[in-house]
Amino acid sequence: MPRRNFKDLLAFVTVAREGSFTKAAGTLGVTQSALSQAIRGLEETLKIRLLTRTTRSVAPTPAGERLMAAIGHRFDEIESELEALTELRDKPAGTVRITCGDNVLHSVLLPKLAPLLREYPDIKLEFDMNYGFRDIVADRFDAGVRMGSTIDKDMIAVPIGPPLRMAVVASPDYFSANGIPKTPADLTTHRCINQRMPTSGGLYVWDFEKRGRKVNVRVDGPLIFNTAPPQVDASLAGLGISLLPEDELMQHLVSGRLVRVLEDWCPKFAGYHLYYPSKRQPSPAFSLVVKALRFSGHGQP
Fold first, then answer.
1. Per residue in 154-189, pLDDT tens?
2. In the beta sheet, which residues pair with residue 95?
3. How many CA atoms, within 13 angstroms, populate the side-chain half-sphere of residue 6?
4. Rounded to whole angstroms, how far apart are CA atoms 82 and 117?
5. CA angle 24, 117, 274 (to 5 degrees)
6. Residue 300's pLDDT is what?
């Protein structure tokens, strides 16, 4: 294939991955019309349709899927090698893409990475705020952040914070009006704030443990959210009881705006971890990010 078609192949790979000409054009920094022209030119050269276009989405045809399987990972390898070349520069450079929740971004990532950005001005960080379980390989992220117990075994997991505990909380006014639950089973008689799980689509089942005894409770209440911040707001407003990681609630517990109960039923568990594929060669910039985030357990926040 002529060399001039390599750009067309990159255009095809990007559109196929993004499922959208608009998103792909933004990623490549070109106009949608130029992108469409590149795809048409590639299809005319190969004399076969590679993409199926609808009003809402773009998807590879069987021929397109075969081409993606053959060349998609090769562009990733080229990109990785180009990133690795930055180690020959005076200072590491490149973009590191991380998907994470907003609380860990503010409490852990930004505080730890701010000094790195000041020391290495050619490093760029891109954050994707997402509470679902993203496929970081397919979505082309360098890493993601999850609780340690939820990370796939084929990933490298690096602790970036201490062990955590869950906390059952509500406002003082709520407990004054409704009483304080003494056991997890008591929660079934209270107004609780539910969370819709981003992966399964079901409601989060509250789980507890005390001296080896595990208890699961299906709670009910007036509100359901799919992220943590509105659950905190609802609890502060006296609308019910929430169950969330204690680090998301600490400032309100210290101030007394929220009260914690059933603390002896909430043991510690593996905290936040940075995870990334074990097979990919890390760039110098990414290695510096991992080093900056790694939790040593010796006086770090």
1. 788 999 999 999 999 999 999 999 999 999 999 999
2. 124
3. 6
4. 21
5. 70
6. 43
| β-pair type (51-53, 272-277) | unpaired
- φ and ψ at residue 245, rounded to 5 degrees: -60, 140
pLDDT higher than threshold 70 for residue 218: yes
Q: Is the pTM of this model over 0.85?
A: no
β-pair partners for 207: 216
Q: What SS3 state is found at 217? A: strand
Q: Pairing state of beta strands 206-210 and 213-217?
A: antiparallel
25: amino acid identity, one letter: A
| Per-residue pLDDT reduced to its tens digit, 43-68 | 888 888 888 877 677 888 999 889 88
Beta-carbon count within 10 A of 105 CB: 17
How far apart are the two ends of the chain, measured CA to CA in Å? 55
Q: Which residues of 182-215 are buried (b: 16+ CB within 10 A; e: fewer)?
A: eebeebeebbbbbbeeeeeeeeeebebeeeeeee
For 201, half-sphere exposure in the C-beta direction (CA atoms, 13 angstrom radius) is: 0
